[in-house]
What we know:
With 268 residues, the chain is α/β, with parallel strands linked by helices.
Amino acid sequence: xxxxxxxxxxxxxxxxxxxxxxxxxxxxxxxxxxxxxxxxxxxxxxxxxxxxxxxxxxxxxxxxxxxxxxxxxxxxxxxxxxxxxxxxxxxxxxxxxxxxxxxxxxxxxxxxxxxxxxxxxxxxxxxxxxxxxxxxxxxxxxxxxxxxxxxxxxxxxxxxxxxxxxxxxxxxxxxxxxxxxxxxxxxxxxxxxxxxxxxxxxxxxxxxxxxxxxxxxxxxxxxxxxxxxxxxxxxxxxxxxxxxxxxxxxxxxxxxxxxxxxxxxxxx
Length: 268
């Protein structure tokens, strides 16, 4: 059985440069990272230019470190943006980093047939660009808004079976989805997972807590994933950029080492 790969998003350490992120990953024995914020900004291309000059400089840096960049996370929204042109500044960096994916959000709310058709057209246009330019990087769509809804997500992957899905397991769980049932409907499309933990906040909402201190059913998720013969990145998305009151990512990773080891799935 293939194992999952531990990973973390730099959303949890937005103040760090990539040099510092590499040091953090080495301290925790985690070789895969997902880039969302660097050096205090979400504008990754600008931060990378400031730190490395050009994509070749980034490639040179990574060649000397054990850290692997799995994805660059953009703010593009599939169901809200008119096109995918905002991806362009990320492409060369992703290619030189050897990243497999550019993350885009789903966006949207209640999806209409027109919404789905436009999304299909945009994804088709992306594949034309990708093939014509010989790109290795592809897109993955995060279940953040419209696709955090169980029925809409399953309907989407049935209509667009080639779509690559970043399953934010907490978002779908918090919206009431049955994790095992949802996995059965989307497993073939999932290429990456986000995990985090939360507890009720007393006002009908949820507040993020250190991994293992909340109610997210991590043991159940691991049990589901262990039956699948495909390695997937399991990425801790510690949302400290949006919630600066949270403990440091360093603390969250220490807690996560126990939390996500609830099964023998480590993949070096």
